[in-house]
């Protein structure tokens, strides 16, 4: 069945119909062109380990057994690196039988190396909400590089609602690229239903190619913009003589794609998980690419994808131009009322290499 991603007006209608319940009214900017930000509730639970509830089991039942202690978030609380927390979210769902949902960290969440996943009652997978689901939502949070401060209403993740089969097939994506030029690459590498993105290690005019997160820093308040000095948290990385970068195991890097991309208003996009057969590292763009990302009608002229990169177990050499992921496009069910970018004063429109909004 043909389907699509529900746009902003349909998300608002789900709320009006009681399909999205919330402890308090939505924030003015909570609904995005093709997604809804989810807000933390009043309490966090430190747990011994990550878990899935499993078929037929509510999350609360597992929490009562695995929780080590309860944390009041009302005045703001620090979540430490290396720990796992579960936070009930303010939003709950009562989805119609034809609508399913998926969640993803917000862009700023990924750029802070905060590992997040959404759980629902009876879930056997993270971040996937089945059609017709009725019940609460919970967020697993594990800061990896920086300790963070959160409070009720902090927004670390977002949810998309889908009907039918929204993803473009390879032939459809190729046809869209012919008319819209989805990437700045001279030869677009389209296969497996996605457009290849490669890493830029040539850098800008100053030779800057990325950043590596520092250890043992101060806390990051996730709700405060432009409040922290970049050099207190990040080590700039300059271009090497041979266009390579050695990734140190378990270090966190912010890099950028060589290609600029854009998402036309009638579509949305998402980076597919990195193929582990290509190397012992993970590249993931946290967050969705909303309609209008990098698009001229929304104040963009192509935007590059910022990439969160981590090597596992062994050092790994990245080379300039190496393919690190694919951008998958999906249809919108209808055009959104507002586009990512100028309509929303979006943080990352027309971006190049860019840290999260918290740093100056």
TrEMBL record:
EC number of this enzyme: 3.5.4.13
Main EC class the enzyme belongs to: hydrolase
InterPro entries (alphabetical): DCD_C, DCD_N, dUTPase-like_sf, dUTPase_trimeric
GO biological process: 2'-deoxyribonucleotide metabolic process
Location of the 2'-deoxycytidine 5'-triphosphate deaminase N-terminal domain: 4-164
2'-deoxycytidine 5'-triphosphate deaminase C-terminal domain: residues covered: 170-359
Gene Ontology molecular functions: dCTP deaminase activity
Keyword Nuclease set for record: no
Keywords, comma-separated and alphabetical: Hydrolase, Nucleotide metabolism
PANTHER family, sorted: DCTP DEAMINASE
Domain of life (superkingdom): Bacteria
Lineage summary: Bacteria, Pseudomonadati, Pseudomonadota, Alphaproteobacteria, Hyphomicrobiales
Pfam families the UniProt entry points to: DCD_C (PF22569), DCD_N (PF06559)
Keyword Hydrolase attributed: yes
Annotated TM spans: none
Name of the molecule in the record: dCTP deaminase
């Amino acid at each position: 069945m043909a389907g699509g991603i529900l746009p902003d007006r349909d998300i608002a209608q789900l709320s009006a119909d009681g399909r999205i319940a919330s402890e308090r009214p939505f924030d003015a900017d909570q609904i995005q062109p093709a997604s809804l930000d989810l807000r933390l509730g009043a309490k966090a639970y430190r747990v011994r380990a990550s878990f899935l509830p499993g078929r037929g089991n509510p999350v609360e039942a597992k929490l009562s057994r695995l929780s080590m202690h309860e944390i009041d978030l009302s005045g703001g609380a620090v979540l430490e690196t290396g720990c796992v927390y579960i936070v009930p979210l303010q939003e709950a769902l009562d989805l119609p039988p034809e609508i399913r949902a998926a969640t993803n960290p917000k862009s700023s969440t990924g750029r802070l190396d905060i590992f997040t996943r959404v759980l629902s009652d009876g879930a056997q997978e993270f971040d996937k909400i089945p059609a017709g689901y009725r019940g609460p939502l919970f967020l697993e949070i594990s800061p990896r590089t920086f300790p963070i401060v959160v409070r009720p209403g902090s927004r670390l993740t977002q949810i998309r609602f889908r009907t039918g089969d929204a993803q473009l097939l390879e032939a459809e994506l190729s046809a869209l690229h012919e008319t819209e030029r989805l990437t700045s690459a001279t030869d677009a590498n389209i296969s497996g239903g996605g457009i290849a993105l490669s890493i830029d290690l040539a850098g800008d005019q100053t030779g800057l190619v990325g950043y590596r997160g520092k250890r043992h820093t101060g806390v990051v308040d996730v709700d405060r913009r432009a409040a922290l000095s970049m050099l207190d948290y990040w080590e700039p990385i300059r271009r090497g003589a041979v266009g390579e970068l050695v990734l140190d195991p378990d270090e966190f890097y912010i890099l950028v794609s060589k290609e600029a991309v854009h998402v036309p208003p009638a579509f949305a996009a998402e980076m597919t998980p990195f193929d582990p057969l290509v190397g012992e590292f993970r590249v993931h763009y946290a967050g969705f690419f909303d309609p209008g990302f990098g698009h001229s009608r929304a104040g963009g002229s192509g935007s590059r994808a910022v990439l969160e990169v981590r090597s596992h177990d062994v050092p790994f050499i990245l080379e300039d131009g190496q393919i690190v992921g694919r951008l998958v496009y999906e249809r919108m069910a209808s055009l959104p009322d507002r586009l990512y970018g100028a309509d929303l004063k979006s943080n990352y429109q027309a971006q190049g290499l860019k840290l999260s909004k918290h740093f100056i």
